[in-house]
Amino acid sequence: MSKQDDLQKIEDDILANDVTPKLRDGATQLVFADGNPHADIVFIGEAPGKNEDLKGIPFIGAAGKFLDEMLATIGLKREDIYITNIVKYRPPNNRDPLPEEKKAFWPYLVRQLDVIQPKLVVTLGRHSMEYFLPSQKISQIHGEPKRISFGERKQVIMPLFHPAAALYNGGLRQTLIDDFSRIPAIISKI
Question: pLDDT tens digits, residue range 30-77?
């Protein structure tokens, strides 16, 4: 089976297992992932927003456009990376995902990472960071790669602020761009 087939099986399992039926009922569709299953870098956000829910593709709203711009600054396009969210259905009114919702989707995210085997996992925002780096504060460790034990292997995690936060807080914009610019050097060290 190909990586794409393995990832399709995970998506099918989420639907078959009816993960978070309450969230599912309020969403238009499952927003599983986008990008290259052979990518060296996986970006993980929190949950789909309104545009993502309508189109079924993660990070296509304003935050996604900013992410695309930052990718371009380091010579990458969407086709070069893999992007997903920890929670795969849009929470009502774009509220933060609840702990039990993140917990319900976590095993599927782990399976996605096991299939892709990325060199680097970039978490976008505290909701996706806290599962990999519990008890850490994003304001203190953003942009600093951390090597963690992840199942049978080691995984490098790089926590970044969520692109949406930079849209609402202009001061974070440059911080995020600066942190992002470190990605190529980190990949070459791995």
Answer: 999 999 999 999 999 999 999 999 999 999 999 999 999 999 999 999
Residue range 3-189, CATH number? 3.40.470.10
Q: Going by C-beta distance under 8 Å and a sequence separation of 6 or more, which residues neighbour residue 24?
A: 18, 30, 89
Q: DSSP string spanning 130-146?
A: HHHSTT--HHHHTT--E
Q: Which helix (H) or strand (E) holds 11?
A: helix 3-16
177 CB contacts (<8 Å, ≥6 apart)? 70, 73
> pLDDT tens, 89-140?
999 998 999 999 999 999 999 999 999 999 999 999 999 999 899 989 999 9
CA 95 to chain centre: 17
Going from N- to C-terminal start, the domains of the chain cover 3-189
Beta-sheet strand order (sheet of 146-150):
33-35, 82-85, 41-45, 120-124, 153-160, 146-150
